[in-house]
Target: Ankyrin repeat protein
Amino acid sequence: MQDHPEKNPSPVSALDPETLSFLQDVLDLARRGDAGGLAPLLDHGLPPNLCNGRGDSLLMLASYHGHLDAARVLLEHGADPELRNDQGQTPLLGAAFRGDVAMAELLLQGGADVESAGQDGRTALMLAAMFNRTEVADLLLAHGADLHARDARGMTALDAARLMGAPDTAAQLEGRLGESTGNA
Model:
């Protein structure tokens, strides 16, 4: 009779309760924005790209919740600003959705790609446009965001702004398009 090899247990299920509790505490530090708690752990080898069960990295958690100091510490320790969660979202997409200009600037300075897009092809500029985030849209455009980029449905940022009834970003993007074609 042959032995059947057991399936490899998932990495999480192979951890003891104490380690799982520690990992949850670390994720909570990022979610709460406790830069002072994260820094020494990172200094001692905590992986800066540690993720929760939904693929949200420490940087995603810190940035989505608006914690600049924690996000800065994570970036300084090598956190990847392009690491996507299970839904294909990056920290910059989260900052654009929330309208967090300071976080978007930090992420761009930390290496985030202004053109990275989610699974649906929506860029940060498209999200900013959809939710009428004019300051974030200005920042993204200043960093080279493409006004002509299209998502999976073929929509541009201006199309998204119009569809979502975001009058300020629609006017802002119309003005930019007029400038780029010389019709301003």
